[in-house]
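Annual report, structural modelling task.

Input specification for the manganese (II) ion complex:
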Amino acid sequence: MQHDGSLKVDAAQATSLAGAVALVGFPTDSNSSYRRGPAKAPAAIRSAMWSEAGNPYAESGIRLRLSENVVDAGDAALREDETDRSTIEAFVSEQLEAGRRVLSLGGDHSITYPIVRAFAHSYPKLNIVHFDAHPDLYSTFGGNRFSHACPFARILESAGVGSLLQIGIRTMTPAQRETADRYGVRVFGPDEIEAARRALPGGDVYVTLDLDGIDPAYAPGVSHREPGGLTVRDVLRLVAAIPGSVVGADVVELNPDCDVDGLTAGVAAKCAREFAARMLSDGTNTPAARTR
Ligand code: MN
Ligand code: MN
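The model returned the following structure:
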């Protein structure tokens, strides 16, 4: 089945789907520092997620069903200007207020700042697990404070989160190290998987996956290829090991223009499916599961 991203549910369905995972798309790349392309990613990931070449079952055995346990809220109407941050925050807040966990498809990594702002209202001690080749902790980059190289600096300054754990980092710079140290960010390189696993947080957890954290051998379709990265299995194993409750996630930085035969879109879809299943499982099984 080809999914066109336009599927919506009516009000009665929306109420009955309060425990579902909301799939939302943010087709934007104007805050990318090098090349455009990630605005095309939500459509590519949705296509791979629901492709008959794939499998609707997550590894845990949970089957993802559109309009049953997954609600596709479509793409936000973004304009590639300063208004987009508030649009993204409101789009996510609407889903959270409907009692859903939210899986966002980027877009470049700049979207994670307004997404986390929305989550921080509902989850005041949110712990973030961030997979990336880059720390994205620049105070400003290329004259843009909202560059995809800056979202975690903005989050630490103002979003009011509990903690930030970064995994796969292999491009740390002195200025970003200073920011990491100032805010107590825990940073683990690709050689420190076991230490990262032991540092995974409890509580309410948000997972953000920049696909360039994964080695370009597995995920070549990104704007900034950085060899020597994580395997897909590293990411899945670490997310499965999170002791806390995964309340939200994003998959960002797929650049379909750089992809090789849809390989990276497939990786993005695989990770999105596993993250969605983890959220469904946590929402059902955790006593702390919230209804709001
Ligand atoms: Mn990156
Ligand atoms: Mn990033």
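Residues 11 and 17 are 10 Å apart (CA to CA).
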